[in-house]
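This section describes the prediction task in plain terms. A model, or a person checking by hand, is given the sequence of a single protein chain and must write out its three-dimensional structure as a string of tokens. No templates, partner chains or ligands are provided. The sample shown here is typical of the held-out split.
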Amino acid sequence: MFDGDTLLRLIRAVPLPALPTPRVIGIDDWSWRRGQRYGTIIVDLERNRPIDLLSDRHAETVAAWLKAHPKVEVVARDRAGAYADGIRAGAPNAVQVSDRWHLLRNLGDALAGVLDRHYYDLRMASKAAAGAALEISTAAAPSPTTAPLPAPAAELPRTDRHGVRQARFDEVMALHGQGWPMKRIARTLGINRKTVRAWVRSGELPVWSQRDRGSAVDRHAVHLRQRWREGCRNAARLWREIQERGFRGQFHTVQRWVRRLRDASPTSAGAVGTMGTWKMPSKRRAAWLVVADPETIDAAEQRFVDALLVRSEGLTTVIELGGAFSTMVHRQQADRLDSWLAAARETALAAFADGLAGNVHGRGGKTPMKDRAGAGRSPHTA
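The expected answer:
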């Protein structure tokens, strides 16, 4: 058995493999200790592999590394001034490429700042979206005493559950394709980060071999379904009731059973309360919604965006410019940058546009754009 220190010493004693001289690299920061100490990771973008870790993110350190690797021709980076200075000092002839992930992150920050000044519009758009959802669900909801009650997810046919799982997988891959970090995908979609990582790495939905199993709650399904039809949606009350009937399980077991039943009943009376209480998104979430592909957001979120677009002409212009910038970056349409900058300078995105223009270091005054090979990856595991 080796202790931790011995294992680390043995690993450090192994000579590093000879690496080909990099020509196109990406640089970004990583944290030794979040919020306190940061280093720099360098990735060979042509071979999609990390090649070095620097102890800090100072311009002098980056410049020294570049001087030791004079064949570097292209450097993809974020908009940090220290990296720009380090590249100019260490590789003055290299083309500095705007990192797509950071460009979109900076756009999101700019849009969030604008939306923060339109709190009233956000609130009213949220009310409009919730009201529309309530009207739709109320009109669609059958009488709770006569509506057919879907089975919980555990009782759904395997093909139906696979369809739900496939849809979640497609969402994950779509967001990953847009450059989203895995942590953000997991947080946004409510999926375990390990699941997101496994799906992204495999590139296809793994076969689900989990065997169908019943639960202690199923023995009380008749009573629970009857109480559901009577309008009882309170998991704690249902749990207490079946406890009196001999159930010995935990509350969260019943809570999961009820949640699956509610999720499987989009047209039941329970859906009215769920859809009608749609909450206002955070400003950062709203900033993502207004530039997102309509196919990646749900109906309530689309109603929110539509309601927001009619609230203010100035806000509508900002949102349209945000969407145009996102499209321009994803499709690498650098030839449209100048006209976009001119339009953005007349709006609340002027500061973002000025900062972007001041950060252009490409040939002919254009801004090269490149996907970040290590987007969302931890430098420690890379």
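For orientation: The chain is about 50% helix and 10% strand.
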